[in-house]
């Protein structure tokens, strides 16, 4: 029983440290995901703009 209480107490005391460390990793992953999405959106937008200009030149 003593071991169980020690384990629970240790987990509760370490939770803020783990949350603060994971916050940095989550922020980094979110920034990378936003960068990839922005690059993809820019790529698609550029392709559509070029295609639209190409159609205007053919008319």
How does this structure look, described?
- Keywords: Membrane, Transmembrane, Transmembrane helix.
- The chain crosses the membrane at residues 24-43.
- This protein is 97% helix and 0% strand.
- It is mainly α and 59 residues long.
- It is rod-shaped and about 80 Å long.
- The chain starts with a helix and ends with a helix.
- The relative contact order is 0.06.
- The mean pLDDT is 83.
Summing up helix and strand content along with how strands pair, one would put the structural category as mainly alpha
Mean pLDDT reading: 83
Oligomeric organization of the protein chains: single chain
Order of helices and strands: H
Biggest sheet details? none
Total DSSP helices = 1
Q: Uncertain spans, ≥5 residues at pLDDT below 50? A: none
Q: What is the terminal separation in angstroms?
A: 83 Å
Note the overall shape.
rod-shaped
Number of strands: 0
Helix percentage range: over 70%
Question: What are the SSEs and their pairings?
Answer:
Layout: H1 2-58
Structure, briefly:
By secondary structure, this protein is mainly α.
Notable traits:
1 helix, membrane, mainly alpha, 59 residues, transmembrane, 97% helix
């Amino acid at each position: 029983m003593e071991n169980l209480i020690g384990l629970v107490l240790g987990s509760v005391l370490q939770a803020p440290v783990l949350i603060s460390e994971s916050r940095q990793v989550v922020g980094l992953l979110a920034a990378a995901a936003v960068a990839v999405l922005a690059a993809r959106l820019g790529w698609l937008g550029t392709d559509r703009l070029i295609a639209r200009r190409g159609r205007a030149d053919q008319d």
